[in-house]
């Protein structure tokens, strides 16, 4: 028996069904909530009031035996399914061999193999190299370090509605003050913000090329092209509201960056790894970034992140200039290799497109009946609805919160996001069963229309 089949046999597969047995949260979750209130920092919040006992496929099971359909994937992380057997087996085997040596001290093959895979999978057929780190924020920070070192320039351009993380530099790069930045300054300098493309909220419709020209005019006037080291952008704005820019926006920005010696950094932390129906979201518009920051879906639920980019940019940094104690942990690398094999073997990008094909018509039909839905948008299995006061574009965060809360009470986990807090986002695992997805959509429909 292989390790994988042994583990599969040892661990009964989680029943792929929604099942609410108690009030949500149930008694055991309430007990844990009380312990948490005493010992866990109050600033750390959770979307669900229940505590998880097990998870797999498309469901989370809580400590009271309730099962929830997972439309969040731990924020776009468990795309291959929670505790995917191949990932579990790879982690167990690696942990039995060695858990840590520090790649900067005693290197190992898994790190090299993940970098090889990233060179193959990220957009563009140029020579590429990678550095592995621990989190999305750390990947973005390292991309900026590399771009600054390679160009000898200081300025970093980011966009309205951007989210890049919670470290000091990435807070500066993130747009939204509350809860991410308020009271945490002073922030890192030389970060400049340009207008994004947000088709629903343009005062007058504007093409992607014109939206890019508007951003470029701001950059050139307020910073000067020759001062800019990097332009950092999410191909679909994630925490900002799953905002898909107008077609042509990203290619025009990439062309401007190329023409001006600016490093074009795609923050694919949330959009990467098959989530949007292609391996990376930049591919939808044929954009080839100079550097790509990845994390979340890379390792089937284990912490790992990377910067992958043009070999000459990556190698511009002096020896010892990049790294970290845990960066590219052998256990995370083993998980990543197993997860990447699943993305490729099972064509999970096609699975994401199938999820889009199943969900979008239902969401559009719901929008026809629910005047509080201003827009259905997204790509692949990164979909959202934006909620407003009917007949206006005034954001309705309370309605988004109500829907998320009532869905949770019925056993469906949905997340909110958006600069205005009024977006419901859907990020199911790419392996979710079609019947589970349909059931979740039935619940969502009922809750939205129950207003
Ligand atoms: C686009 C983007 N960049 C960066 C980050 C930060 O990643 P992490 O939370 O792993 O630091 C996130 C997290 O949501 C993200 O969505």
Automatic annotation (TrEMBL):
Its EC number is 2.6.1.19, 2.6.1.22. Belongs to the class-III pyridoxal-phosphate-dependent aminotransferase family. GO terms for molecular function: (S)-3-amino-2-methylpropionate transaminase activity; 4-aminobutyrate:2-oxoglutarate transaminase activity; identical protein binding; pyridoxal phosphate binding. Pathway: Amino-acid degradation; 4-aminobutanoate degradation. InterPro entries: 4NH2But_aminotransferase_bac (IPR004632), Aminotrans_3 (IPR005814), Aminotrans_3_PPA_site (IPR049704), Class-III_PLP-dep_AT (IPR050103), PyrdxlP-dep_Trfase (IPR015424), PyrdxlP-dep_Trfase_major (IPR015421), PyrdxlP-dep_Trfase_small (IPR015422). GO terms for biological process: gamma-aminobutyric acid metabolic process. Its cofactor is pyridoxal 5'-phosphate. Keywords: Aminotransferase, Pyridoxal phosphate, Transferase. It comes from Pengzhenrongella sicca. This is (S)-3-amino-2-methylpropionate transaminase. It comes from the Bacteria. CDD domains: OAT_like (cd00610). PANTHER family: AMINOTRANSFERASE CLASS III. Pfam families: Aminotran_3. It catalyses: (S)-3-amino-2-methylpropanoate + 2-oxoglutarate = 2-methyl-3-oxopropanoate + L-glutamate; 4-aminobutanoate + 2-oxoglutarate = succinate semialdehyde + L-glutamate. The gene is gabT.
